[in-house]
Recover the amino acids of this structure.
């Protein structure tokens, strides 16, 4: 695998000032970059050394981000955005055009598979995203699926790409973070990583290695199921606590 040849020798973090790193840098595109799963990840990756392109279709959201305004409540988010704009402007760029992702090593998708009115998984949003995205891919990017997915969705995405003549690698690396505390927990909570092949897994590890957390190797379907089990456990824990409170 050939990654960007630049090396992140020093990366500034608010906790430890200058800390030496020896991680290969990637050119990363985050789709839905102003969303709750996308924006904290984009900023933390840029802060830790990767070159990040944030793509968001809503022009007003982009205008606010460029002005240093964080669009939702996130502990530490406002400060991180302003630090990235002030200290690392070359590592964080913004766009509303999918065509601008050309040349990126990794494309992060923040589209999930919710359930419909009959409680069946709805993959239409993911399929629509892949259909629109495919015309802008060169075929050598690694697609990282970041949201909660119905088991089998990652393989479905790869099949859709192959049907369009694209040989992109696919990785499922779901987030498992508390709402409003993603900026903090991205550098604290172990990260699940998986890949459609060894190269996809290796590139997922390069992506998340600068965060300094443990990386847990799984298969695509294991990663998809793991986050669903975690969500189910949280619902049970919260429900039980509420019952005792009442």
């Amino acid at each position: 695998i050939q990654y960007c040849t630049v090396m992140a020798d020093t990366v500034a973090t608010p906790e430890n000032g200058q800390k030496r790193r020896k991680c290969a840098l990637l050119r990363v595109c985050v789709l839905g970059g102003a969303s709750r799963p996308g924006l904290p990840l984009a900023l933390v990756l840029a802060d830790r050394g990767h070159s990040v392109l944030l793509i968001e279709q809503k022009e007003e959201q982009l205008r606010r981000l460029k002005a240093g305004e964080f669009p939702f409540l996130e502990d530490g988010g406002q400060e991180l955005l302003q630090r990235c704009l002030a200290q690392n402007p070359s590592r964080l760029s913004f766009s509303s055009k999918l065509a601008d992702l050309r040349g990126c090593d990794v494309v992060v998708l923040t589209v999930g598979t919710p359930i419909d009115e009959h409680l069946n998984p709805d993959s239409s949003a993911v399929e629509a995203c892949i259909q629109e995205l495919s015309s802008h891919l060169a075929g050598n990017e690694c697609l990282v699926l970041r949201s909660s997915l119905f088991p089998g969705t990652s393989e479905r995405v790869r099949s859709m790409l192959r049907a369009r003549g694209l040989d992109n690698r696919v990785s499922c690396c779901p987030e498992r973070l508390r709402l409003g505390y993603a900026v903090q927990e991205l550098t604290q909570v172990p990260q699940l990583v998986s890949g459609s092949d060894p190269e996809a897994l290796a590139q997922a590890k390069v992506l998340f290695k600068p965060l300094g957390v443990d990386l847990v190797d799984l298969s695509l379907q294991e990663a998809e199921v793991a986050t669903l089990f975690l969500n189910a456990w949280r619902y049970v824990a919260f429900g039980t606590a509420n019952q005792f409170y009442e």
About this structure: Confidence is low (pLDDT under 50) at residues 1-22. Helices lie at 38-47, 59-66, 77-87, 124-133, 153-163, 182-185, 198-208, 220-245. Strands lie at 10-13, 17-20, 27-31, 51-55, 92-95, 106-109, 142-145, 169-172, 191-194, 215-218.
